[in-house]
Design a protein that fits this description.
The protein has 132 residues and is mainly alpha-helical. It has a domain of 80 residues. 63% of the residues lie in helices and 0% in strands. The longest helix has 26 residues. The radius of gyration is 22 Å and the shape is flat. The N and C termini lie far apart (90 Å).
Length: 132
Amino acid sequence: MTNMAPHPKPRSSGSDQLSNGTRILPAGVDLRTIAARRFRFLVTEYSREIGPDLSESQRSLVRQAATLQITIEKLQGDVVAGLRVVDSDSLVRLSSEHRRLVGALQVGAEQNRLAPGAALAAYLAGREADES
């Protein structure tokens, strides 16, 4: 009899927890810290603003925006508390990227709010107003 290693457990064909929305960060991240609680709050609020049916890319943008928001808040707190000198250029770049992400999320939220056909109706109404 040969000494064979057991076969690894086969993976299920379903999505992982991050993809199916049951987790907001990969396994192993402690979600009980102050930063993690703030992250969960921001993800929940950004997601609520967009609407109930987020695509995978929207969920990714929400997580990125929340991460940048926490980073910016930490740097701002450090500046105000005088804990360390913060590179203002880095803070400006982070804030600019955050603004860009939030803007993209707002566009997605606006599109989600429009009923099917509403965008076309709004476009046609605008054209009629321009022709008058």
